[in-house]
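Internal tracking record. Fields below are filled automatically when a chain is submitted to the structure queue. Please do not edit lines marked as system-generated. If the sequence contains nonstandard residues, flag them in the REMARKS field before resubmitting.
Queue: standard
Priority: normal
Entity type: single polypeptide chain
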Amino acid sequence: MAEFWDVYDINGKKLNKVVQRDKDWLSKEEYHMGSAVFIKDEFDDFLIQQRSFNKSLFPGKWSITGGSALAGENAKQCAIREVKEELGIALKQQDLKKIYHFIERQCHFNIFVASVPKTTKIKRQIEEVEQIAWVSRQKMLEIYHSGDFMLPFIDEMLNRIK
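SYSTEM-GENERATED OUTPUT FOLLOWS
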């Protein structure tokens, strides 16, 4: 099914334009939006996922849950949808706290944190997620510094999570 994105400027202002993913190209001055979520439990462990080896970008890399916003979605709606699709966890907007924003590969990326009990039932989307793991901050940093983590700035982001 075709996926459509709203287009934004460098400052994150939504433009009056929608593009189709993998069909329409963004110009040098155009951006799309994405969101990702650090899912944290009551023991200060984090739920990470390994991307499917069938993915075209970063196959097999570890990451937090996230993806691109669909046309009409805001950053929190995108985060909620991605977590539900990829892990089967139902979050609400009030569960999300924004901790970081960066721009990379023509994407305004919004990073959130949400707390869930470690006993939360997880149903991974096998087309997207190879495997999941609960890891400590230290283990996540080890994976990041080994080059096996997809996102940049993980150490900076973790410093913002209390």
